[in-house]
Design brief:
mainly alpha; two-stranded antiparallel ribbon; two-stranded antiparallel sheet; globular
Length: about 525
């Protein structure tokens, strides 16, 4: 009986807390699945994405600035070519006027249009038109060549490298993958979108590598500070545009606050929408973090591509946030405020609720939420302790599979189970088709985390297409019946096993396995 319990726990550890079973199935951790999960926490194991294009944020932004300058110069050359065309046209018109004679010409129109005599205005128009069209076509070709950058579109090339480093790298490394799942969770909690700008497009991966992964098993306050000062978040939520109303930079009084980063810090990143703050607190926090910006290519404020504090744009004076007064210590004012937000009781409740909802159930068990929140507060946001409290509850090991895998989780589980290594552009296309474009949510609240969003008929139809694609690529020696038994272990129902066994082809059997409730849920 004890062994049966371990078998169930092993399957749950892989599907609920991890990335899904790999080719070894559940057997690799069956002897002590909870211990294996605790070991990943103790070792603070978060795989590191690697690759030649996975540079630091500063280096990536410097490369982007150079790319943008090169493109600007190309467009200026194109504009110069276009501006030269009126003179060219005048010269050609003069040449044509001198050449126009009443004699019959081979270029003269025929048929119904021949009624316009050689010396009449109609004939002049008809002879000039082909030359103008040819000139316009030639100019268009020149402009088109000049507008195309000499190198591929840099932000997308960087994104593809980041995708490859994860789906063909980090998701394959861990036995269970709890750390990698947590990196996904926190990247969605602190969401940015590559569609926002070229800067965010280029450094979204570096943001996850630098601000999220190093702090997954550390303290929440450290992650919060790393996130809110990262160029990706500052750019995504427009904090460079936020100028203190009474700052030196606003001497003409024509600029002002941008509250985006302050609002989302309170509403999404820390206290939560019902966390007890007011609009006045949003405005105050926005004032506190004025001057938090990114050094541009010119390097006037600091090393290009890095976070800098622009004292000239900072709102002067002490500020009172949630009843606490923060002295004007420059950049330290904001850091102190963020640390207090990180340890606020509402933050503990908000983070605990999101963690339990993500890993355990769409309707989080209240007792488990309170346990996790209490641990968060007691340990000053020690995330390793928070995770141990989460997986230490029997509520977290309920064998009922109530959570539906998001497209990202489904794709990850498919690749782990099949061993397939699609190209990164294929992975991006698949995730987009399934409704979860990679690092590109519709808003700063990230992607939804409940079954009603991902279990629609349209979503399941797209998953069928993806399952077919993967099944087509799986080596012929893979037996669907063996695969489904090894991957799902005791979670496998008799109905699913029978359906796989009765499949007419090996491919059909794999598709049934991939689309089974046990594989779709966790």
């Amino acid at each position: 009986m004890a062994q049966q319990s371990n078998d169930v726990d092993a399957a749950l550890a892989l599907s609920r807390f991890g990335l899904g079973a790999d080719h070894n199935g559940t057997a690799s951790i069956a002897s002590d699945p909870r211990g294996a999960l605790l070991e990943e926490i103790a070792e603070r194991f978060v795989p590191v994405p690697v690759g030649p294009q996975l540079q630091s944020t500063a280096d990536l932004l410097v490369s982007l600035y150079a790319f943008q300058e090169q493109r600007k110069q190309a467009r200026q050359q194109a504009a110069a070519a276009v501006s030269a065309t009126p003179q060219d046209k005048q010269m050609q018109d003069k040449q044509m006027q001198g050449a126009q004679q009443p004699q019959k010409s081979a270029a003269q129109p025929s048929g119904a249009m021949a009624g316009a005599g050689a010396g009449q205005p109609g004939n002049q128009a008809m002879t000039a038109q082909p030359d103008n069209q040819a000139m316009a076509t030639a100019i268009g070709k020149v402009v088109g060549k000049l507008e195309k950058p000499a190198m591929p579109y840099l932000p997308q090339q960087i994104l593809l490298a980041e995708v490859d480093a994860r789906f063909n790298g980090t998701i394959r490394q861990p036995l269970i993958g709890f750390g990698e799942r947590l990196a996904m969770f926190w990247a969605n909690h602190f969401a940015v979108a590559v569609s926002k700008s070229e800067e965010v497009h280029a450094v979204a991966g570096a943001f996850e590598r630098e601000a999220i992964r190093p702090h997954v098993f550390g303290h929440f306050a450290d992650m919060l500070l790393a996130v809110e000062t990262h160029p990706a978040m500052l750019g995504y939520l427009d904090n460079q545009q936020s100028i203190g109303p009474n700052s030196r930079a606003n001497a003409n009084k024509k600029r002002g606050l941008n509250e985006n980063l302050a609002r989302e810090t309170l509403e999404l990143h820390t206290l939560g929408v019902n966390g007890g703050y007011t609009q006045a607190d949003v405005t105050t926090l926005a004032k506190i973090i004025t001057g938090w910006t990114v050094a541009r290519a010119q390097g006037k404020l600091g090393t290009p591509g890095t976070f800098v504090f622009n004292a000239g744009a900072h709102e002067p004076g002490d500020q009172t946030l949630l009843g606490l007064t923060y002295a004007d210590t420059g950049v330290g004012q904001g850091r102190e405020a963020l640390r207090d937000l990180a340890r606020h009781p509402a933050t503990a409740q908000h983070i605990a609720t999101k963690l339990v909802r993500h890993f355990v159930a769409d309707t989080p068990p209240p007792a488990l939420v309170q346990t996790v929140a209490a641990t968060f507060s007691k340990t000053d946001g020690d995330l390793s302790a928070v995770y141990r409290a989460l997986i230490g509850s029997e509520d977290a090991w309920n064998p009922t599979l109530s959570k539906v895998r998001s497209p990202l989780e489904f794709m990850t589980a498919l690749l782990r189970a099949s061993g397939e290594t699609p190209k990164p552009n294929v992975i991006l296309g698949v995730l987009n088709a399934m409704g979860q474009p990679f690092w590109s949510p519709a808003g700063p609240n990230g992607f939804a985390d409940t079954a009603d969003v991902w279990a629609s008929s349209e979503s399941l139809s797209m998953r069928m297409d993806v399952a077919n694609m993967i099944a087509n690529a799986v080596p012929p020696q893979v037996d669907p019946r063996r695969f489904v038994s090894d991957s799902l272990g005791p979670l496998l129902s008799q109905e699913t096993l029978q359906a796989v066994s009765r499949a007419e082809t090996r491919k059909q059997g794999l598709v049934i396995a991939y689309l089974s409730p046990e594989f779709q849920r966790r």
